[in-house]
Amino acid sequence: MIKKCPFSKEDCTPECSLFVATDDLNELVAARLSSLGVVDKNFSGSCSFKMLAMSGGRFIFENTSTKRL
Questions:
Q1: In degrees rounded to 5, what are phi and psi of residue 68?
Q2: What pLDDT, on a 0 to 100 scale, did the predictor assign at position 1?
Q3: CA dist 58 to 8, 15, 33, 55, Å?
Q4: How far apart (Å, rounded) are the C-alpha atoms in residues 67 and 45?
Q5: CA distance linking residue 36 with residue 59, whole number of Å
Q6: How far apart are CA 32 and CA 30, in angstroms?
Q7: pTM surpassing 0.70?
Q8: What are the Cα distances from residue 43, in Å, to 25, 32, 56, 60, 69?
Q9: Which of 7, 38, 56, 62 is the most buried (most CB within 10 A)?
Q10: Quick one: which of 45, 38, 47 has its CA closest to 18?
Q11: d(CA 54, CA 44)
């Protein structure tokens, strides 16, 4: 199921100003996002808010330690 845009309640498509296409990213950025698990190798595009949220979540996961008793 494709999630809807919270602003327009429609699918995030290239017509949306928040959509980031593969062609919009340089190879280094695409490779880094792919290695972090934010996008996959068959990435065709995604909402910029989703990419920011996934990148931020990954950053928090990588830089947070928990103490177990």
A1: -105, 135
A2: 57
A3: 27, 28, 10, 5
A4: 38
A5: 9
A6: 6
A7: no
A8: 11, 13, 19, 23, 41
A9: 38
A10: 47
A11: 16
Distance of CA 62 to the CA centre of its chain: 16
The backbone torsions φ and ψ at residue 46, rounded to the nearest 5 degrees and listed phi first, read -160, 165
**Partners of residue 46 on adjacent β-strands:** 20
Tell me how far CA of residue 67 lies from CA of 7, 11, 12, 60, 62, in angstroms.
39, 41, 39, 15, 15
Pick from 47, 43, 50, 52: nearest CA to 22? 43
Rounded Cα–Cα distance for residues 33 and 30 (Å): 5
pLDDT in tens, 47-61: 788 888 888 888 888
Residue type (1 letter), 13: T
pLDDT band at 3 (very low <50, low <70, confident <90, very high): low
